[in-house]
Design goal:
homotrimer, alpha/beta, Rossmann fold, 2 domains, four-stranded parallel β-sheet, 37% helix, 15% strand, globular
């Protein structure tokens, strides 16, 4: 039995097969409409996250299965002092697979070590959120037709952004991926990722301060939020915040075949005027998130559909 | 694609067809038990309302579909600052239709303007709650066999009562409906409804202070709550509150074929001793609420059942 | 139509049939996978209890039915002042059966008196929790092959422990059940249970202070939590707490065919090192809880499966 704690738990070949499956699901959804009849997913969200929770529930319902679970810790047994290990053993009697979000790093790993059903890490604190990364990979592959030979811009808070770190670690496994790291000095990608992930894998990258500089050469622009409170001082924030807001004017600098991704929720880092640009792919990304979660559930449950 | 924001979004003819459909659902529920197989409703309740939420969920489940959603804003992405527009675009990737309750007037309308799935306004602040009005119409039509040639008493807080305003606006489209407006002076129907809706449509109405005065002539009595804090002073409240409490004694003044409706929850404005009176129709009204929501879902999803 | 408020609502013969049914469900789950197609359970949890709620939801989903409900009172109409009687009349329009947990003793009984669907008491304050007792009975019967001729140790807080009181009342109906009551003096079984239940039924029992003393003769050890705040003083707690913690060393005193039960959640009264002991049955107990709830739902809905 397998679990997924990190996007790197699956080899490039395994991910390829999973993305092929997601692609087939996209094309032939009816073929999979009863693949998980009679099966249940438990969504154990110790920390609320509507989008992620509903994406998992949608994935299971699309496969013909059903859902049990909780949406926040106060309605769970955690309030009564039960350990995550005990909870997952109980849930193993109820469901066939489980998606767990927990504010504590490593909680899903602890759960998986005693679980008799597959556990999906649906986000553990600032640590990992593998299905977001799988979603990002599938979106890029679906839009560009490949995961290699790409120039990928990562914009915003590269210091604390969990999704960015995971995406980099996942993409360095493909050939000729170049990164353009777009952030204020204060929010640069941490040196341990630059050194241990990028340099160690001989991956090409450059760092720029302004989004405009980077835009013309990008195949993919991955936007994230820049929170005001992350800046050292108010002056710097005021001076620089516009550098990281994507609007129509900046989109004119980009290639006609560039695509914009965002893990959502977005606040104001992408102007709503960009939404109607055909290159805006952040809502399609949500749809790919459903397909890849369907493929992941089928893979972990070892359900074959012919 | 259509949405429903107000009960007036549908013409009298369209409502007739929808109520015919609800009647057929009541008679032949099995015929519709798989009409929405594989479809999903998202119940997006930014403000809790158990009855309304469960009524929508029951409606979809009765049609063979399934449910995703949230029951209060704190477990939603709204807490992270996401706009209603972005949320509905995300939900459009998950569900086939959505019912939204929101404390802010107009929020469901904003959602419908960018949604790629039908949006049902399940209550937006004190503004509209169209499926309550559809429920009221279906209940009256089912009990009386018609929506015209009726004398309808509306009792309680006619000033702030959203359901009463909507019901009046919906009923003036039928012939020979007469209203008896039963309320304290402080909670009279607002002049803009008396003038713009009743007078403008040449609808007959009278205003009375005491429920007893009105009861003998009514075909339908629509009760609502009179909240103490709506009165100008404590003395008035004490003096008048019994005027608006329906009990067994008052029911003796009413016709044997009058029916009592109430949007629920009731607090004490209808004495529990009235519950066993065959004219008490407020719990049957809940059942009609399920049928009309089933009919509405089928209509908006353009599902035909033969 | 029947409800279940107390485990004693069913005769020994009826319970036998229900446990036979649960046993058949365990052996042939597929036979029951569509027994409740098109039916709905409403889980009305005015007080959160994840395990119990999910157990009921799992039971109904395993039977092919579906679920509506709420997980805590704040998202229910109770907040708007609706009575439990009105709520259940509304829910009767939505669901086919209901499981209600309520902090107030007697609330499910009030509901059942006006309900037109079967009501299951899923815990009312410190009063009754019949499906926990049915779970305990089924677990013992499944593990030992019988409910008579057993020596059953009950350990921990016997004064306030609702599950222990219910289990005793249920087990005295079987022949030759002997109880060993293991608790500190402060938390002894109340005299009204010793006298009115045990003595009145001529049931053999002994009371001991230390778990070690009792262990060698037990067929079943039913563990419960001893809360620190229940002791008269800190010294007593420190002196005695280890008496009531089950660990590997204590397990060596027990018979090879003794089984350990616990209603869960456990905190530290059973050391995790005991989990791998084949005699530890508290997680299997959760599984039996699903089977007995499936059998109960089928029984109350009068669904026959051949």
């Amino acid at each position: 039995m397998r679990h997924i704690m990190s996007p790197l738990d699956f080899s490039v070949e395994e991910l390829d097969r999973m993305m092929d499956l997601a692609g087939d699901i996209e094309k032939h959804p009816d073929k999979y409409a009863h693949a998980c009849d009679g099966k249940k997913i438990a969504t154990l969200f110790y920390e609320p996250s509507t989008r992620t929770r509903l994406s998992f529930e949608t994935a299971m319902l699309n496969l013909g299965g059903s859902v049990i679970g909780f949406a926040s810790a106060d309605s769970s047994s955690a309030a009564k002092g039960e350990s995550v290990s005990d909870t997952i053993r109980v849930i193993s009697c109820f469901a066939d697979i489980c998606a767990m979000r927990h504010p504590k790093e490593g909680a899903p790993l602890v759960a998986s070590s005693v679980s008799s059903i597959p556990v999906i890490n649906a986000g553990d604190g600032g640590h990992q959120h593998p299905t977001q990364t799988l979603t990002d990979l599938l979106t890029i592959r679906s839009l560009k037709g490949r995961l290699d030979h790409l120039t990928i811009g990562l914009c915003g808070d590269l210091k604390f952004g969990r999704t960015v770190h995971s995406l980099i670690s996942a993409l360095v496994r493909y050939t000729k991926v170049k990164f353009v790291l777009i952030s204020p000095e204060e929010l640069r990608l941490p040196s341990y990722i630059r050194e241990d992930v990028l340099d160690a894998n001989h991956v090409e990258y450059e760092e720029v301060i302004r989004l405009e500089e980077a835009l013309p050469e990008l195949d993919i622009l991955y936007m994230t939020r820049v929170q005001k409170e992350r800046f050292f001082n108010e002056d710097d924030y005021v001076r620089m915040k516009d550098f990281y807001i994507l609007d129509k004017a900046k989109m004119e600098l980009a290639r006609p075949d560039m695509h914009v991704l965002h893990p959502l929720p977005r606040v104001n880092e992408i102007s709503v005027e960009v939404d109607s640009d055909p290159r805006a792919a952040y809502f399609r990304q949500v749809q790919y998130g459903v397909y890849i979660r369907m493929a992941l559930i089928l893979t972990l449950l070892e359900v074959k559909v012919c």
